[in-house]
Amino acid sequence: MVAQSPAPRNPDVSNKALITKSTPSIDANVFKSQSAAAAAAALRKMADDYYAWRNENYPVRSSDTGLHTWDDRLTDYSSAKIAERAHHVRSLLEKVRAMKTDSWPKDARIDWILFRAQLEDVDFSNRILKFEHTNPQVYTGECTNAIFSLLKKEYDTPRKRALAATARLKKMPSLLKQGPSNLQSPVKLYAQLAIQSARSIDPLLNKSLMALDVDLAPNEHEDLIKARDAALASLHSYADELEKRLPQMVDFSPMGEANYNYYLKHVLLLPLNGSEVETIGRAELARYRALEALLPDPKLADPDPKRAAHIPPDQELFLKAYESREAEMISFLKEHNLITLPGYLGPFQIRQLPDAFKPTSPGGFMNPPGVYDKDPTGFFFIPTYNPESKNFYIRAAIEDPRPILGHEGIPGHFLQLSIANHLSDEIRRQHEDSVFVEGWALYGEEMLMRTGLYPNNSPAQGQILRLSRYRAARIGVDVNLHTGRWSFEQAVKYFMDAGGLDREAAEGEAAGAASSPTQKISYLTGKWQIMNLLGRYKDRQGENFRLGQFHDDLVKNGSLPISVIEWLLLDDPAAIQQATK
After folding, report:
1. What's residue 31's pLDDT?
2. Sequence-distant (≥ 6) Cβ neighbours of residue 251 within 8 angstroms
3. Angle, helix 434-450 to helix 459-482, in steps of 10 degrees
């Protein structure tokens, strides 16, 4: 799973000359008299200006992706600024929609489709989800990520990062006052998750943050402590205020089927509607549930640390043991020529998940290199180690971490997103299609199994089947939860009964599905699309087919919708035409 964060791009974006307060007004009629090349160049200029605007307006997002120009700021969530940003995106989207692209070459048309989808995503959130008004996690997440984004990499001296943290901490009390006034229609489920996060942030600020307090002058140290304590007090007060308001909140507010289908088509560029996606989920759930039953011992699909040859005695050795298995996976990929590993790949590290992220990420999350990062390191944050834990992900990691490593590391997210970061086309480098990103990582799990990494009838094979099974269950939860057919408790029970998860993991999965609409369909929907593309690619290549070449051709395009990749690899625009008609 990849941490969700806005991603600005452009290696030299810190240059002030690139930063604009708004995008220049461009009359759609102008494009009628321009050549296709000039119009496409104008599109790229609009996109570059938009990314620069976004970087400055969402400073915590910028820090998270390795752009540290505004490390001393938080996002302005005043009602006027929220409205201003929404208007800016809407007006730009209307200009992009008005462009006449029929005469443009294929690559330029693809860039136009992608940039329009990026704007549709933000506009949809502003119009339909309205999370600033419904989701209290917006404000706890801003505070958590404001500090976390300064800690995870040593991009500057501890003192400078500590001073940036102090500046952000000082702004948190004001931000946490904006939250309650903006939350006109808060959702109880989101509020409960925000309360958990606010009350779990203490270790991040009291322990992790203080690792930066090494070269501060006495007055700077005192300033940091004072700001930290005030921020913590405000976060706990925010949680208290939310708790008081819980009885008046709606339990959950689905977006509805029409809006759900709009998002699939206009943002994800899927040639499928919600019902069709759910059908894929049900079919794949039945298949993987049956494949579990066909194992000589079906219990192999349920991770059991007791079957492990060695159980790490503590957290440190657990993390090291987890990370060490990546080397053998890399050797396997190279020996079987399954994918090309570029020389710019950095290290991939395993770290402990901060408590503040546990409510919606029970299995941890992947934090890839940011698109502006000079440091190519990636991280996978996993839950606190406990050899007696009932958590599926902990049990799986003790018995055999390779299936999850393959998903999160190499050849999964870390490899794919590192390659995407090196695209020369800025619009494509900006694109973060979750269906492709998660689909590739899930496809990789089964690809490694079928190409021989794991022994037959091993716990690793069982784990692959269980992981695909519960990813299939995610589809049913996401579609039915957000179209309004299911309650949250029904979603939890479905994860347990159909997905085979324990209650702790099921509740976290359902919370994540509720908080990030359509994200949970990404895994199996994307894998299904990639498998379909693989078969067509093989038939097209004939005698020249090589699996490793398919993988190279697939990931070299970045994190694009598979409907677009089909147009690029097969010269077949049918899927993207179906999605955009």
Report:
1. 44
2. 187, 188, 189, 487, 488
3. 160
Domain boundary among 527, 543, 558: 527
495 or 13: which carries more pLDDT confidence?
A: 495
The tokens for 488 are 């949250």
Q: Taking the complete model, does pTM exceed 0.85, yes or no?
A: yes
SS3 category, 193: helix
Asked whether residue 54 is domain-assigned, the answer is yes
Strand partners, 559: 432
Instruction: Give the three-state DSSP class for 440.
Output: helix
Contacts made by residues 305-314, CB under 8 angstroms, sequence distance 24+: 305/387, 305/395, 305/398, 305/399, 307/399, 307/459, 308/398, 308/399, 308/400, 311/387, 311/398, 312/385, 312/387, 312/398, 314/385
Tell me whether residue 263 is in a domain.
Answer: no
Number of domains in the chain: 4
Residue of higher predicted confidence among 76 and 352: 76
Tell me: pLDDT of 333 over 60: yes
In 3D, which of 304, 310, 378 has the Cα closest to residue 345? 378
In terms of residue numbers, what domain contains 152?
A: 130-253
CA triple 393-396-400, angle to 5 deg: 140
* Phi, psi angle pair for 380, to nearest 5°: -120, 120
266 part of a folded domain? no
Tell me: the pLDDT tens digits for 112-154?
999 999 999 999 999 999 999 999 999 999 999 999 999 989 9
Tokens representing 299 are 């219990």
Q: Among 580, 474, 515, which residue's Cα sits nearest to residue 190? A: 515
Query: Of 109, 129, 149, which closes a domain?
Result: 129
